[in-house]
Amino acid sequence: MTKRILLWAAVSPLFICGLLPIIFMLVSSTVADGEFTFSAYSELLGSTRQWLLLENSLILAGIVAFSVTIIGVSFGILIGKSDLPLKKWLLFILCIPILIPPYIVAVAWDQLLAPGQGPLLLFPQPWHEKVHRLLFGLAGSVFVLSTVYLPIPLLLTSFFVRTVNPRFEEAARLNAAWPRVIRQITLPLIWPGILLASMLVFVLTIGQLSVPSYLRFQVFSVESFTRFSALYDFKGATANSIPLAVMVLPLLFLEVCLAKKWNLFTSGMVQARGLLQIRLGKWKRPAFILVFVFAFIFVVLPLGYLVINSCQKGVYLRAIEMAGEPLKRSFFYSAVAASILSICGFMAAYAIKNQAICCWRLVNMAGLFLFALPGTVLGIGLIGLWNTKWTHFVYGSMSIVIMGYVAKYYILSVKVIEGRFLQIPSSMEEAAQLAGASWLRRMISVLFPLSRRWVFASWLCVFIFCLRDTDITMLVYPPGCDTLPVRIFTTMANGSPQLVAAMCVLMVLSVVVPAAFVWITLMASGRWENV
Amino acid sequence: MSENSMVCLESVSFSINGRQILKDVSLNIPHGTRLVLLGPSGCGKTTLLRLIAGFNAPDTGSIFINNTVVSQNGRVVVPPERRNIGFVFQDLALWPHMSVYGNLEFGLRVRGVSKSHRRKRILKMLEMTDLAGMERRRPYELSGGQQQRVALARALVTDPELVLMDEPLSSLDWDLRRRIAAEICKLQKDLGFTMIYVTHDKEETNQLATQVVIMKAGTVSC
Hints:
The complex is a heterodimer of chains A (531) and B (222).
Chain A: H1 2-28, E1 31-32, E2 35-36, H2 39-46, H3 48-81, H4 87-99, H5 102-112, H6 125-135, H7 138-149, H8 151-160, H9 166-173, H10 178-206, H11 210-214, H12 220-229, H13 234-266, H14 284-310, H15 315-353, H16 360-372, H17 375-386, H18 392-395, H19 399-421, H20 426-434, H21 439-468, H22 471-476, H23 484-491, H24 497-524
Chain B: E1 5-16, E2 19-30, E3 34-38, H1 45-53, E4 60-65, E5 68-72, E6 75-76, E7 85-88, H2 100-110, H3 115-128, H4 144-156, E8 162-166, H5 174-191, E9 194-199, H6 202-208, E10 211-216, E11 219-221
Parallel strand pairs in B: 3-9, 3-10, 7-8, 8-9
Antiparallel strand pairs in B: 1-2, 1-4, 4-5, 5-6, 10-11
């Protein structure tokens, strides 16, 4: 009985904070003056502008998903499987853009390519304006979002290549050189994972608000946000959000379809010991230079320029004055959400792994759906549901921000811990059960100690994602309770470039310093292979 | 090293993370031999096979195949794909995304064998291993014994001079093990390849070996 109550209690935040607002939004968009109607949708479908926005969203997401998959998979194989020098540090550098609010990368490139200064001085004057203008629009959005989402296929590929049974590759190595083995054995074995990574990038790009909005590229999510925040058109914004939500569904379908195939291909792989490493030999130096130059141009150069641009007298004092309180709030909100999700994620991961509650599959799918769902959609849903006189204590407090984080990042916590649970043999828990331990005791004395590092990893993962969140927070934060990413975004409209750069640097440091600390600890403890 | 030598190991040592797995191993295996490496778990049998295959290089010492040095003092001189070796792994390592035919075809295609010759060779090999008619099936659709035969056929289809087998029958029941061991013997006699077979089962050793090498704690004795 305790087991069932606790497991249901752990999964209920997903339904209350995530699914309920979406259902409410769906229902309210089809009711007008107490009558059922599709008027908001027919207006949406009848507008040429909406179709154009949808087309823009799809083109942007398609190009970004394609380009990051090609680059991410290539680099993922190099980093995950070869003897590339300094690969752990290169991986860390390449992952920085996903740890920070995406628009910071756009701000960095905007300042870097500003006419008449910086590296553009190396080029003739007439080029300056053209290059800078190129950043604003489709090309710039693709460029920035590709940098931001590259870590997804990169990390997943470097992880997946290490799950392939090395015997499969050894059997092929007896006949063929590495390039062919990668093409015909390794990649076909991990393609479900690559496809999933690509699809995830696609849906995350579709829902991106801050970058297209900053780079003035008109997409569906920006329209939905504008309708809500500038025009106060809740019904229109809701109707606008539904196509974004619908676009997430193929990801769920793919996850369900691929999970079976994935299990088939990976069965027995977990037990396989030893990684078969690609020895680059004479290609070691060129490969290193390629990855290093890429990391330098796409990550170090723009973020480094923010540091250079912000180094002016008094700027940091002013930045700290403006960013101090929001930064404290960012840390506090993120820590609360991460702590709630570590506990819920631990229980939910158990429920999913052991199929311990009837709706375990729904929890998995709903979590993935909410993660991929644009933050604006979730934000509009939360406001619609909780903005009533009876529930103002939620809507008017920080609770609504925490609820948004819990709904959006629930699955991150679950997946990290579930990954560990899959490695723990069921016999561990069964032995404790035979010894007479109750379910709660088994959880506390056996499963938690065995997975405590992963619980901490899930805490950190959620903490970082909450810290960088812009889309949900921007919509739902109560007056005077903004977070640092939101404060920077609003300061950009009238603050000096130097002040914005300094605030961006503070934001980057607040995320990258703890992440680097964990990274160094992992490397020093030799647990890199478990990452 | 004699002229008739297929594989020759000279003072081979190998260690992983500071733990010595093989200590000064020297061994000469003539052409056409069915050599069985017998020894308890963890004595270095599989490591020795992996060094011969070229997946790892010995820290010190040399390995020769057909009187050509293939690995020497921490360096793989000839990569695995150019050693013309067949390998039957303990877990078989049949590629799950390919059919039986695809598993056998891979090595032939890499070697540039024409489509018609590939087909002829694969069908012949499937017939020899009692797998005729199974070519379209996926490995996971076969029984344990059939999978074993596919692994054997895949190792032999490229006509290797040397075949390495790493406890390939350990997961089968006693009766099936005896039958497949007899089939391996027959195939080796028919095709004439040199075979190095790793096991810890004395009965298998008696059935298969023309030469026995006993391994203990990283050293060998004949």
